[in-house]
Amino acid sequence: MFSSRIERCYNIAELRKLAKRNMPAPMFHYIDGAADDEWTLRRNTGAFDGVEFLPRALVDVSTIDMSTTLFGRKIDWPFFCAPTALQRLFHHEGEGGTARAAHASGTIFSLSSVSSTNIEDASKLSPGPKVFQVYMFRDRGLSREFVQRARDSGYVALQLTVDVTVSGNRERDIVTGMTVPPKLALMSLIDIAMKPKWVYKHLTTPKIEVANIAHRPPPGSDKLGGIIQFLNAQIDRSITWKDAEWMIKEWGGPFAIKGIMRGEDAKRAADIGASAVMVSNHGGRQLDFSPAPFDVLKEVVDAVGDRLEVILDGGVRRGTHILKALALGARACSAGRPHLYGLGAGGEAGVHQALKILKTELARDMALLGCPNVRAIDPSFVRRVGGSWAT
Length: 391
Prior knowledge:
By secondary structure, the protein is an alpha/beta fold. Helices cover 43% and strands 12% of the residues. It has an 8-stranded parallel β-sheet with strand order 4-11-10-9-8-7-6-5.
């Protein structure tokens, strides 16, 4: 019955609706919301509407090859789930459901520093390639520890997030009480009580915690809110390119800087030894009225050429979005909300459906575009709506 409801979700928007029905409101809006007036959240997806395709006719598309390489690993298609925090808040299967679904889809799994499954246990969730997302902490010993644990656990790459010097003003969370520490409003508590399946699983599975620091909680704090406060206080506002270069050398392998929105910053990333940049505004959850990643993608690609793998992160809801990003030079795309909507809608099965939707759409769209190989997609396949790219 529940599986059939998942299978009847034919696009990401339908998975979002099902997740909204299944999840308590505070948790759903934590996924769904963004900063201030949420202009950037809307623009992240809306930006794709400004570009149209120029299909090629009479091309043999009997075989479609979507495979590519990213972080030195071959993946079946150019999309992966962006790192997202505390996934067991949204469904009891949490990171396990996402990791298994990502592997089944033939792509990478990303683990957040603020995950509800620790680095070591997450590495065992699936045999596929895994990358770890990290922040630069005031306590460099904690940063060094995370890097070493990821290395010891076989992660293939590191992603340094650089756009969270302070937390964005996420007003939906203030309204529902999903703050740090939580201050759940009465209506939020009532809504939680009306989701008995979520409550039952929450009460009968291990408590949700920031698993990566469970072994070293801050003094006097054994509650989730207090630990997140501790981690927020650990985010280093003084981080510079020199610090990023230190972490790149500390890691010594494929390394992405996540949160790049300017061509000049992408050049700096290449200069200090990064192998990739993730063009991202944190899903619109940080600085509202930041441009959409798609709007600055061409600038970033033009700035670095082949020096870096450029990943477009955010706003992707359709296979056509992935295709447009590839046409403008992205090596791959990532996003957080699609797989979280799937997770909230039905755990691992929901994440599997989210990835199946996007992967199936991309294959179909490539055939219709007249481009059977993902590595052959280039700017000749797109133009601005009603016109051409300005020179």
